[in-house]
Write a structure and sequence with these properties.
By secondary structure, the protein is of the alpha+beta class. It is 21% helix and 25% strand. It has a 3-stranded antiparallel β-sheet with strand order 3-8-7, with no helix packed on it. The chain is globular and about 40 Å long. The termini are far apart. Pfam families: SET.
Length: 154
């Protein structure tokens, strides 16, 4: 491989990795939700509709997505387009939890299937220190409960 080609490949690999990262203003730490593990917290103020970060990962088609064993980090972006952030530990949006309480969600996943990404947008002003919560949707929880019959979430 030529030096120019190696540089090109390295540059684009780093550029793709950079796109996974947030612009700052968030950090992962222990969630306020019992047994949730990590959560994502604002470290700076955000205003309504701000893009906080992006949910990216391995891009999959429907057939591939159906065969993913652990679907905890699998997101359907649109018809036949899924992203799986299970192995993408640098994707900060993967730490956003669903608190399962209406009126408490403060971010939404703005799905962009053509770009293979979901933008995380503020639903209202968010203060530093707030944990970010999104509504995963009823299909996520139906699937979760089917695969975890001994510990269903209501």
């Amino acid at each position: 491989m030529s030096v120019a080609l190696e540089y090109y490949c390295l540059f684009h690999a780093l550029e793709r990795r950079r796109k996974y990262m947030c612009k700052g203003g968030v950090e992962a730490r222990t969630s306020q939700l019992p047994n949730a593990g990590a959560g994502l917290f604002a470290t700076k103020a955000f205003t309504k509709n701000d893009v906080i970060c992006e949910y990216r990962g391995e891009v999959l088609g429907t057939k591939e997505a159906l065969h993913v064993g652990d679907k905890s980090y699998l997101m359907r972006l649109g018809n036949g387009v899924y992203v799986d952030a299970r192995d993408s530990l640098d994707v900060m949006a993967r730490y956003i939890n669903d608190c399962r309480s209406k009126g408490v969600h403060n971010v939404v996943f703005d799905k962009q299937p053509e770009q293979q990404v979901a933008l995380v947008r503020a639903l209202h002003d968010i203060e530093p220190g707030e944990e970010l919560f999104a509504d995963y949707g009823r299909w996520y929880w139906l699937a979760y409960n089917m695969t975890h019959p001994s510990s269903p979430i209501k």
